[in-house]
Amino acid sequence: MLTKERKQAIIKDYQSSPEDTGSVEVQVALLTERINELAEHMRHNHKDYACQRGLLMLVGERRRELAYLSREDVGRYRTLIARLGLRR
User: Fold this and answer.
1) Cα(45)–Cα(31) distance, integer angstroms
2) What is the sign, positive or negative, of the torsion defined by CA atoms of 2, 88, 80, 56?
3) Is 44 exposed, middle or buried (0-12, 13-18, 19+ CB in 10 A)?
4) For the segment 17-65, what is each residue's pLDDT rounded down to a tens digit?
5) CB atoms < 10 A from the CB of 54, how many?
């Protein structure tokens, strides 16, 4: 589970200004953290189909956010995927 402290740390790492909590970079970073946690859960509980559905929904949401960012600003998109280690 994503704790309040961990969430604040992620927001602080990816925000562009002190007031920024909802930019695309912050949202994608938070989604990636949740996806990683659910993926680990699925490794141990492969028959948890409700969790599997939630995981797929989060992956789709992250994909849409990244598609938006790539349309709007390719430089920010490339920087973000490099920082998160996505798209090997």
Assistant:
1) 20
2) negative
3) exposed
4) 999 989 999 999 999 999 999 999 999 999 999 999 999 999 999 999 9
5) 16
Non-local CB neighbours of 68 within 8 Å, separated by 6+ positions: 24
Q: What CA–CA distance (Å, rounded) separates 1 from 66?
A: 23
- Helix (H) / strand (E) containing 49: helix 49-72
* CA 72 vs CA 10, 65, 76: distances in Å: 23, 11, 9
Residue with tokens 């990244």: 66
Residue type at 42? M
Q: Give dist(CA 77, CA 75) in Å, integer.
A: 5
Six-digit token pair at 35? Answer: 């996806």
Q: State the residue for tokens 């970079």.
A: 25
